[in-house]
Write a structure and sequence with these properties.
The chain is α+β, with helices and mostly antiparallel strands. 30% of the residues lie in helices and 28% in strands. The strands form four sheets. It has a seven-stranded mixed β-sheet with strand order 4-5-6-7-9-8-10, with helices on one face. The chain has a five-stranded mixed β-sheet with strand order 3-2-1-11-12. It has a five-stranded antiparallel β-sheet with strand order 20-19-16-15-21, with no helix packed on it. Helix 1 packs antiparallel against helix 10, helix 4 runs parallel beside helix 5 and helix 6 packs parallel to helix 8. The longest helix has 35 residues. It is globular, with a radius of gyration of 27 Å. About 13% of the residues have low confidence.
Amino acid sequence: MNRRLAAVLLTLLVVGVLPTVSASTTTQSATPQRLPLYNATMKPLPQDLPWYFIVVIGDDRPEFVSWVQLPEVFVDSIKEISMINPQALIGLGDHVSQGSERQYKEFYKVMISSHIINQMYVVGNHDVSYGRKAYKFWREYMGPYPIIYDGIPGWRIALLSTETGFDEWNNSLARTYSGLDGRKVILCFHRPVKPYIGHNLQDDSPAMANTLLDYIRRHDDTPLVLQSHWHGWAEYKENNTVWLIDGSLGAPLYKTDHCQAGATCLSTYVYLVLILYPDGNYKYIPVKAGNGSGSLEVERLNESTVLVENTKVNVYGEPVSLPVRVEFNLTSKGHNYTVDIVTFAPAGGKEIIQIVEGPSGPVIETNATSPNSYIYIMGSETGEEIAVYQGSINGLSLSQWIGESAVPASSQTPGPENTTGLTGSSVSHRSTSSALYAGAVIIILAVLVAVAYLVRR
C-alpha cells in the first residue's frame, strides 16, 4: 500500500509540474501590445533641417490572392531601404494580395522589423478585397486613412483613399487644400489619373478623377502626384504638376502598351527616393529594384565606424547617388545624445563614416565629400534638438555641442547585424521555450520511470 501511495503521489507531482512549465513558457513568449505601423513608427522630425528624404513604395503584393509570403524582391528592397534609413516611408497601396489577417501579419512583421520611421500607407484595392474584415485588419495593422501629414516644413503630404465613395474622396481633398499656410502639396493615392495607361481611376470612377483634376487646376500648389496600381514606372508632366506611377516592388509587371503619348512608361521593379527642401523645391530618384539593380550596403564595422557602398542604378540603368542617414549614440558626462549624419552615398563609390576621439573631444572622420551633407544632434533623454549643422563634415568636432569627452555607443543604422527587430526577439523567446519544454520532458520521464519501478516492486 505504501508503494502504491508513493506512486499516486509521484503521479500527482507530474500533473502539478505541467501547468507550472506551461505558465512559465507563456510568460516568456508573450509579446507587447501591437500598434499599427503608422502609430508604432511615428517620430517627430526636427523642423529646421536643410532637406528631408522619403522613400516611396507600391504594389509589393504577391501574385496570387491567397498567398501570404511576400515577393523576394520586396523583402530584399526593404532591407536595402532600411540601410538608406529614410526619414519617412510612404506606401501607395496593394501591400497584401487580398486583405486577410495572415497577410497583414506577414507584412507587419517585415515592416516593423525594418526600423524605418514614419511609415504611412495608402489603401489599395487588393488590400481590402477581402471585404469589411480587411478594412478592420487595415486599421489594426497599418493605421488610419486618409492621412494628412505636415511633419516636413514647407510641405503637406496627403495620403488619400481611392477605395472609397465620392463624398469621402471630396471631403479628403477639401481637407488637403485647407489651411496650407504656404505649404506645397504632394498627393498620394492608389489608382492613377495621369498618365493614362489603361488602368486608371477615371475608368472606375470618372467623378472622382474629375474632382481631383478640378482641385489641382484651382490650386497652383500641387507640384507632385504619387500613384501606383499599374505595375511599373511612369512619369508625366502637365502644366506645373509631375505625375508619377511608382507601381511595383514585387507585384507582376505590366506591359507598356497603353502608355499615354508624352509619358515615359517602363516595365520594371522600382522604389522612389524623394528629396524635399523647405522652400518648396524637390528632387526624385526612381531606383531600380531586383535583378541588375546593384546594391546599397551599410555595414557597421564597430560601434563608431560605418562603411557605405553604393552600386545602385536608376530605372534607366544609370548609376545614382543616394541619400543615407547614419545614426550614432554618444554618451558624455552621464548624458546620452543621438547624432544623425545625413549625406549622399556617391554612385559607384565607398564611404567611411566614423566618430573618433580628437584632441578636444569627438570628431567626425569621413571621406564623404557631398556639400549637401548635414548632421543633427538630439538629446536622447529629452528628445530636444541640440544642434543642426550643414557643410563639410570631415574633421567636424562635436565637442562644441555635447562636451569635450564623449564615448560612442552603438551605431543605430540598420544593417546586416541589426535588421531582425522583432524577429530576433521571437527567436530568443522560442529558444527559452524550447529549453523549458526540454527540461519538463526530462523531469516527467524521470518521474514516470520511478513510478513504474515502485509499482513493479
